[in-house]
Design a protein that fits this description.
Number of helices of chain B: 10
Radius of gyration of chain A: 25 Å
Bound molecules: iron/sulfur cluster
Largest sheet of chain A: 3 strands, mixed
Largest interface: A-B, 62 and 58 residues
Number of strands of chain B: 1
Order of helices and strands of chain A: EHEEEEEEHEEHHEHEHH
Number of helices of chain A: 7
Largest sheet of chain B: none
Helix content of chain B: 55-70%
Number of strands of chain A: 11
Strand content of chain A: 15-25%
Strand order of the largest sheet of chain A: 10-1-11
Oligomer: heterodimer
Distance between the termini of chain A: 56 Å
Helix content of chain A: 10-25%
Shape of chain B: globular
């Protein structure tokens, strides 16, 4: 089976800082997918082309609610509905790594592919008049001039909480495959059979049970000596008199 | 979806053209033997004009019209590409048909097979145009055979009224037959359109906010969609009109496309007033523009689930 590169986004740790959004825009507006124009950036109705957005949802009702930050970009579907509808072949899915790309020299800007993407992952570039979307930073992940550590999508490198994992989901031993397998990774809108390559890791409850005696150290936990401490707090313990 | 006027004009103009061509070919054997024989020539030239007008309208939809020829390459998978190929074929066949009839004006028969090839192309074009919409399965309002039936029937209806008007102008008695068949097809397409409205009102969306973000909870509220200004996502997929207008649109469509034309046609049969046929055609065409607008506006794109609150 060939490679399928993808992002795995951990909703449990995303803090909604938009670092991925800005670093994506910065890299891609100056890279081969650029430019990504902004219109009226300092007016009352600014707008622009982005490959990645972070949205925020409130789950539950106050006070029993949680804020979930939700980054969304092209999911590089394994069966992408946006590709076969394209009349020019400008939209295509790469055999070798499963990245879905748009050839900006072939695209006629008919917008049909954006209608055929249920996730709203494609945006028309208002200046170049062609369709744009996340390229998984195809122009940097294979760039041998970069140190190996940096051959990752810009968003992944920017994330301060490491909420974004990047790798080959067809390789069962990759970090992303493990994360999907072991941490309940899921796909968006599975009902349309698009089989998005990008997965999301759900929120998790982190709970540990702590008993009282675990908070107060017993000096002789294995009870090897017969002189038991008479009380856990009042008596001086070894911790109180030594300095290691 | 946000209706695009270029596409509204494209589909209504070529629909009328295709319908007119089909009416012309089917009606050819019934033309008056002693008549001038100019009807097939004039009608297919009008067909050609309508198809060209539709094509021009479609160019306004493209960001890069100078590359439009590329759209003919992916006919194996894309209905849009197929339409791009069949439309010029339809133009060509309408010109050929006009030319042949110009050559031997007044005698038909030997040329009729060209006409039937043309009819097949026109029907194929209806299929291509409507499948562009019907093949997107998550646009549940479109993803149905009803879409194909409606595009085809409404195009034929419009073409029949136009055929009748032209035949009246050229003094061809077949105008009356066109008119009567036009009334029958109008009434039939009213039934299928009503069925489409009924079907759409009962659609249960497969996607919801739970499947969109993958969190199974009854109460999910969007607090921010990632930007305060709009984006392509907020502009292209929603009509930004009130529910009230949407509800009224349905009445407007039914009145203009079906009820008023049927009424006018019935009177014109009674009083033999050809001008009423033309008025009926024009009113119906305006109605079809509204019908196409509504066709787009009523389609709920699942991506809108991600764009509920500015925040
Ligand atoms: S997320 Fe949308 S644009 Fe990306 S591959 Fe899937 S269908 Fe295509
Ligand atoms: S907008 Fe471009 S990429 Fe999308 S379907 Fe049209 S030609 Fe293909």
């Amino acid at each position: 089976m060939s490679k399928q590169l993808a992002l795995v986004i951990d909703l449990n740790v995303c803090v909604g800082c938009h670092a991925c959004v800005t670093s994506c825009k910065e890299w891609n507006t100056s890279g081969s997918a650029g430019s990504m124009p902004d219109e009226r950036p300092y007016d009352s109705d600014p707008t622009g082309t982005f490959f990645n957005r972070v949205q925020t949802y409130e789950v539950g009702q106050y006070p029993n609610c949680e804020t979930v930050h939700f980054p969304k970009s092209c999911l590089h579907c394994e069966d992408p509905p946006c590709v076969p509808v394209c009349p020019t072949g400008a939209s295509y899915k790469r055999e070798e790594d499963g990245i879905v790309l748009v050839d900006y020299d072939k695209c006629i800007g008919c917008e049909y592919c954006s209608w055929a993407c249920p996730y709203g992952a494609r945006e028309i570039d208002s200046q170049q008049k062609v369709m744009k979307k996340c390229t998984l930073c195809v122009d940097r992940i294979y760039d041998e001039k970069l140190p190996e550590m940096e051959r990752k999508p810009a968003c992944v490198l920017a994330c301060p909480t490491s909420a974004r994992l990047f790798g080959d989901i067809h390789d069962p031993d990759s970090t992303v495959s493990q994360a999907i397998r072991e941490e309940g990774g899921y796909q968006l809108m599975p009902e349309w059979g698009t089989s998005p390559a990008n997965h999301y890791l759900p929120r998790r409850k982190t709970r540990i049970t702590i008993h009282e005696d675990e908070l107060v150290r017993e000096d002789n936990p294995l009870h090897k000596e017969d002189v038991y401490p008479t009380g856990p707090v009042k008596q001086t313990t070894l911790d109180d008199v030594t300095s290691w | 979806m946000n209706p695009a006027f270029s596409v509204i004009f494209l589909t209504t103009l070529i629909g009328a053209g295709q319908g007119l061509f089909i009416a012309t070919v089917v009606g050819a054997p019934y033309l008056h033997q002693s008549g001038s024989g100019s009807f097939p020539v004039v009608a297919s030239l009008v067909v050609f004009t309508l198809l060209v007008a539709g094509l021009i309208a479609s160019f306004f939809h493209l960001g890069r019209p100078e590359r439009a020829w590329r759209a003919a390459t992916k006919w194996r998978t894309s209905w849009l590409s197929r339409e791009v190929i069949v439309l010029p074929m339809a133009m060509l066949v309408s010109l050929v048909y006009a030319w042949i009839h110009w050559q031997d004006m007044g005698s038909q028969g030997s040329t009729q097979w060209i006409g039937w090839i043309g009819v097949a192309i026109m029907v194929l074009l209806f299929l291509c145009t409507s499948m562009i919409y019907a093949c997107i399965k998550f646009l549940q309002e479109w993803a149905s055979a009803v879409t194909v039936i409606n595009f085809t029937l409404l195009g034929i209806t419009s073409g029949l009224l136009l055929a009748s008007g032209l035949a009246f102008l050229l003094g061809e008695p077949v105008a009356i037959e066109f008119l009567l068949v036009g009334m029958i097809v109008t009434a039939t397409s009213m039934m299928t359109k009503l069925f489409a409205f009924y079907r759409n009102s009962r659609i249960k969306a497969h996607s919801n906010i739970q499947t969109a973000i993958g969190i199974k909870h009854r109460h999910i509220t969007q607090r921010s969609m990632g930007m305060t200004g709009g984006s392509f996502n907020t502009r292209a997929f929603f009509h930004h009109c009130s529910e009230k207008l949407m509800a009224n649109m349905r009445g407007i469509v039914l009145t203009l496309v079906f009820i008023v034309p049927l009424f006018l046609l019935a009177i014109s049969v009674q009083l033999s007033q050809p001008i009423l046929v033309w008025i009926a055609f024009i009113v119906q065409f305006l109605g079809l523009l509204a019908e196409r607008w509504l066709f787009f506006a009523q389609a709920n794109h699942p991506q809108n689930l991600y764009y509920q609150t500015v925040g």
